[in-house]
Amino acid sequence: MAHEREFRNVLALVSRGLKGTSATGLRRLGLHVGQNFLLEELCRQDRQTPGELARRIGVEVPTVTRTAQRMEGAGLVVRTPDESDRRAVRVGLTDRGRALCGELPEMLDEVAGQALTGLSGTERRQLVDLLRRVAANLGAAPSDDPPGRR
User: Fold this and answer.
1) In DSSP terms, which residues pair with 81 in a beta bridge?
2) 101: Cβ–Cβ under 8 A, 6 or more apart, which residues?
3) What angle do CA 73, 146, 68 make, to 5 degrees?
4) What is the mean pLDDT of residues 27-54?
C-alpha cells in the first residue's frame, strides 16, 4: 500500500503544480483555468454547439455553457443561433479569441517543458507511456482522450 499512497501523493503534487503554473500563464493571456480546453477545441473546429464541445473536452453541457458565457463576457467567443436550428446555439471564436490559438499551445508547452526539466528524451517518453497505461487502467484509454488532451 505504500506505493499506492506515494503514487497518489506525487500525482497530486504534480497536478497542483501544473494547475498553478498554467494558471499564471493563462492569466497573462486573459484566460482562467479550464477555459483553455474550450479555446483549444474551438481553435481546432470553430462554431460548435455546447453539446459538441462538452463531448469533445469531456465535461457536462452546463459547464460548457457557463464557461462560454464567461468567455463571451471577456470578448473571446460569441454565442449565436444555429442557422439550421434556431433553438440551437453555436459557440465561435472572436478575432481576439482566434489570436490566442497560437499563443495558448506555446504557453502550455512552456509549462510542460518546465515540468520535464532534467528528464532525458528517453525518460520523457517512458513517463508519457507509463501515464498512458495508468490512464488506461482507469478506463481512460488514449482513444478516449479529449482531442485537447492528447
Assistant:
1) 89
2) 39, 43, 93
3) 10
4) 97
Residue 76: how many CB atoms within 10 A of its CB?
24
Burial of 9 (0-12, 13-18, 19+ CB in 10 A): exposed
Instruction: Tally the residues of the chain.
Output: 150
Q: Rg (Cα) of the chain, in Å, rounded?
A: 17
Whether the Cβ atoms of residue 22 and residue 36 lie closer than 8 Å to each other: yes
Number of Cα atoms under 13 Å in the Cβ half of residue 65: 6
Do 92 and 59 touch, CB atoms closer than 8 A? no
117-142: pLDDT as tens digits:
999 999 999 999 999 999 999 998 55
DSSP state of 94: -
Burial class (CB in 10 A: 0-12, 13-18, 19+), 64: buried
Question: Is 76:94 a contact under the CB 8 Å cutoff?
Answer: yes
DSSP three-state, residue 60: coil
The predicted-structure confidence for 4-14, as pLDDT tens digits, reads as follows 999 999 999 99
Helix (H) or strand (E) holding 79: strand 77-81
